[in-house]
Amino acid sequence: MLRSLLATLLILGAAPALAQPRPDPDWPCAQRKVSTLGPGAVWTGPDPTQALAEWGNDTDAALLAQKIASRRLPLEEVDGLLDGFAGKLDKAEKDARLTRVFAGVFEVLNGERDKVVAGIGRYARGQRVMAERIRDEAGRISEVKTAPDVPETKELAELEARFNWDKRIFQERSQSLTYVCEVPTLLEQRLGAIAKKIQERL
């Protein structure tokens, strides 16, 4: 029984999220941590500095940006919405206003990504605390079982029940973390795809 407990703890300690040393101990994902993105990572169009400051003041651009940034909207529907917006613009204002749309999409998706990255760090810290608690529980179970002349007791049953429950929660959270770790990449991919679509219309 003791061997199986130790084996379980080794498995927990080697969860995929914590498999390799990372520069940031609170970053559990296999993907390299990039705390925040810059527009230049996905945008090669006009300088977006001014657009980033004023896109919220352009009501139509802001509404479009928020709509196409939403992951609920399939990417294939973005083209039609961009064409509808661009088709109403004068040539003189086209680049500036489409750049504002990009700025809005960037701000929305990058903001969402920042929150996800911060949440992953909190999640990992919680997992580390739980792993330590599970190790402590396993150690206590071992002490009770190896004590001389101590039969199976209510205390041991309670310890094992708590250990099994915490282990189950830890493992379920580790599996969820695998999916959560993919979210920043999915957001980056959506941002890059939309940026490309906007640039094609400049």
UniProtKB/TrEMBL annotation:
Tell me the leader sequence span.
1-19
Q: Please indicate which superkingdom the organism of origin belongs to.
A: Bacteria
Query: Which keywords annotate this record?
Result: Signal
Q: Quote the protein name from its UniProt record.
A: Uncharacterized protein
Q: Which organism is it from?
A: Methylobacterium terrae
